[in-house]
Design goal:
Elements (H helix, E strand, L loop, with lengths): L1 H44 L1 H4 L4 H9 L3 H25 L7 H15 L10 H7 L8 H31 L3 H23 L15 H25 L6 H17 L7 H9 L4 H34 L4 H24 L4 H10 L2 H26 L3 H22 L2 H15 L16 H21 L18 H25 L10 H14 L14 E4 L4 E8 L2 E4 L4 E2 L4 H14 L3 E4 L7 H5 L27 H13 L1 E6 L1 H6 L1 H15 L13 H4 L4 E6 L4 E9 L6 E3 L1
Helix pairs in contact: 1-11, 3-12, 4-5, 4-9, 4-12, 5-12, 7-8, 7-9, 7-10, 8-9, 9-12, 10-11, 11-12, 13-15, 13-16, 13-17, 13-18, 15-16, 15-18, 15-19, 16-17, 18-19
């Protein structure tokens, strides 16, 4: 008996073990397996309607839509986004974000996540990122996220129950809306009562979130979604009804249960099969609604999120600016090549019927000129100039209008409009003020190359070769080769004028810092500095950047770079603010900071800003305690001293006041040395002979018995007496 019980217990254990394993497998892989299964089931159930759809009929149905109702649907979608932002305004009052910021975060998070799931169900991660600077711990958002999810899902469930009640009572949409409000409130209160029992929400501020405010927001949210869907139905000449409302809400439930992002495929198939319209019309309704209510808001939200992410990640700002600049340059090249090619014959006939010839001629030249200027502005965008951004936005709008005027090229106009939207979403990246002109020889070379491409491409596409330039004065709608030739001549003249302007422009040259600037830098170095190399500021061959009392650095502008040498003189706690000010200044003068001969202390802050490092040399320090004339280590020094004794020379250090009296002797020695070595003075990282520079510091000299100087080296002594060097 005992053995039978053991075998039975073992069998049950194996059976329940397999059941437990199967359960765990299902829980682990359900999110991967269930969506395609759900779509397959829905498609199988609605296959009869789906197989009757033909793309040509769908396009015809879309063209037959009443555009006014489609615009009304877009308007209700915009209102819905406004309401979506109110979720965060109500739920996250405990954060340090202002109400306006909370509304922006909520609207963008909903618009983005609505395309990926339903409403807030994909939004928590985005919200944790958006609110990170305004909270002390992630748990501060947990209660608000749960409250938003309850309000949103209660709104959907309430509208479903309200619609069922209205259909059962034979009532209309008004009764369904009223019943939905009551159902939403009841479901939300019940769900919040259950949620309060969770330990995870005990300290997450869940009870502090107003319940009835969110109930109203959730109900209005779904009301506007229903209104947008009904407008699309009206665009297809289908009146609103409780049956259509039931179909819309049931499709939302199907999409939610399927776990498919946005319910795409599952909800769509249900709507197409259940709407009281031909299959092609139903597909057109679903396609328009998807674009207006989901895809377009998601695209705009994605651009905004990208812009915010770029601003929060300093290392990516320059990359984002260059990306926008590259897109702008590509847009300029697109409209430039479009202006060089002939228009489509069908559109040319439409132009001849409706657009005056002067408008066509003006549009041709304007589009090409705008493309050329967009190419030139790209570098200003890469530098983050506010002026370049404003000019780019104006030129994109002008180029889009000109594209329509010159050949009804709506494709180019659409691309330029999309580019303008993308650039506008990153407007916060372009805040630098440009000092003077940033157009230089490289931009002229680019413009000349663009004109050359325009001419060659136009000669090929018009199939007239360069003979078109012999007929450049001929006018007419269909004389496109002559119009192309006139445009090419106008572009060439514009480039010649720009070249003449650059050639006559007075170049900006290096200006030696004044004595007041040098003295101020030396005072700062004495107060907060530590090394001897920054004393080379007195040489006068480097400019001085000072950030108030934080410190200063020495630099020279060389080509596209602002080269800093050596370490900036800044207190450790002020390094970040100093670098911010330095980078802002470098942007104003259109240069990129480059750091030369820095110490290891500056590697971490510069690495955080994306710098890479190259070892070009070494700097050695010799402790004075190790300098000796005794033993093997002092052999070389003893030889030097004995050689000096034999030659009758002596070594001493002259104070600055004596150096000033003997500058003529020192200059003669320097000039003779350069002549015998057949070299010129070098500057920047090493000193050069400058009378004012030498007179500021002691000077080590080798003298003969009669006091004549035969060699010298100026001595730089650090303010903390930690080191000194010879220059």
């Amino acid at each position: 008996m005992t053995s039978r019980l053991k075998r039975a217990a073992l069998a049950l254990h194996r059976r329940f073990g397999r059941l437990e394993g199967a359960t765990l497998w299902i829980l682990g892989y359900a999110s991967r397996v269930w969506p395609p299964v759900a779509i397959a089931v829905v498609v199988w159930l609605t296959w009869g309607a789906l197989r009757a759809i033909h793309l040509r009929e769908v396009r015809a149905a879309m063209r037959a839509f009443d555009a006014r109702w489609v615009w009304a649907a877009a308007g209700f979608t915009a209102l819905n986004l406004v309401v979506m932002g109110l979720y965060d305004v109500v739920a996250f009052r405990q954060t340090r974000s202002a109400a306006a910021a909370r509304w922006r975060y909520g609207a963008v998070a909903f618009a983005w996540s609505n395309f990926l799931t339903l409403g807030p169900l994909a939004g928590p991660a985005i919200r944790f990122w958006l609110y990170a600077p305004a909270i002390d711990r992630a748990a501060d958002l947990r209660g608000g996220v749960v409250a938003i999810s309850i309000a949103f899902l209660s709104g959907l469930a309430g509208w479903v129950l309200g619609t069922e009640a209205a259909i059962a009572a034979g009532a209309g949409l008004g009764v369904a809306a009223a019943a939905a409000l009551a159902s939403t409130a009841a479901i939300s209160i019940a769900a919040r009562a259950v949620a309060r029992r969770s330990r995870m929400l005990s300290d997450a501020g869940f009870d502090a979130v107003p319940a009835y405010d969110l109930v109203l927001v959730g109900w209005v949210d779904w009301l506007l979604a229903v209104a947008a869907f009904m407008c699309v139905l009206r665009a297809a000449s289908i009146g609103p009804s409780t049956a259509a409302l039931h179909t819309f809400l049931a499709g939302q439930l199907v999409g939610l249960v399927s776990l498919v992002p946005g319910g795409f495929g599952s909800a769509d198939a249900y709507w197409i099969a259940r709407l009281s319209a031909p299959a092609a019309t139903s597909a057109a309704i679903v396609g328009v609604f998807r674009f207006v209510y989901y895809i377009l808001p998601w695209a705009i939200a994605s651009l905004l999120l990208l812009s915010w992410a770029t601003r929060r990640a300093q290392r990516r700002i320059e990359l984002a600016r260059r990306a926008i600049a590259g897109l702008t340059g590509a847009g300029g090249l697109l409209i430039l090549l479009s202006s060089a090619s002939p228009a489509l014959h069908v559109r040319l006939l439409e132009l001849e019927r409706f657009v005056p010839l002067p408008i066509v001629e003006l549009g041709q030249v304007t589009a090409a000129m705008a493309g050329l200027l967009l190419l030139a502005l790209a570098r200003g965008l890469a530098r983050g100039y506010r002026a370049a951004f404003g000019a780019t936005m104006a030129l994109l709008a002008l180029a889009a209008v000109a594209a329509l005027a010159k050949g009804l090229d709506w494709e180019e106009a659409t691309v330029l409009g999309g580019l303008a939207i993308a650039a506008a979403s990153h407007a916060a990246l372009f805040t630098r003020r440009s000092r003077g002109d940033w157009i230089d020889g490289s931009d002229l070379a680019l413009a000349m190359g663009a004109v050359a491409v325009f001419v060659v491409y136009g000669a090929i596409t018009h199939r007239s070769g360069f003979a078109a330039f012999s007929r450049w004065t001929e006018l007419g709608y269909r004389l496109e080769a002559s119009r192309f030739a006139r445009t090419a001549i106008a572009l060439a003249l514009a480039v010649v004028a720009a070249a003449a302007y650059v050639a006559m422009r007075v170049p900006v040259r290096f200006t030696r810092p004044s004595d007041e600037e040098v003295n101020r830098a030396l005072e700062l170095h004495a107060a907060i500095g530590g090394g001897s190399t920054p004393l080379m500021v007195a040489n006068g061959d480097k400019s001085i950047f000072t950030a108030g009392d934080r410190g200063f650095c020495l630099y020279r502008i060389i080509g596209p770079y602002l080269v800093v040498f050596p370490d900036p003189i800044v207190r450790p706690q002020d390094r970040r603010e100093f670098l911010d000010a330095l980078f802002l200044f470098a942007g104003d003068v259109d240069r990129r900071p480059l750091f030369y001969q820095i110490s290891p202390d500056w590697i971490p802050p510069l690495h955080d800003r994306g710098y890479v490092f190259f070892k070009l040399g070494e700097e050695g320090y010799m402790p004075l305690a190790r300098v000796t004339t005794e033993g093997p280590a002092g052999k070389m020094y003893r030889q030097i001293l004995r050689r000096g004794e034999r030659d009758g020379v002596r070594f001493r250090v002259m104070p600055p006041y004596e150096v000033e009296r003997r500058l003529d002797e020192l200059e003669a020695i320097s000039t003779d040395w350069l002549h015998r070595k057949a070299v010129n003075e070098r500057q920047f990282s090493i000193g050069f002979f400058d009378r004012a520079y030498l007179a500021r510091f002691p000077c080590a000299v080798v003298e003969t018995a009669d006091g004549s100087i035969v060699a010298f080296a100026n001595v730089l002594r650090g303010p903390r007496r930690e080191d000194f060097s010879v220059d």
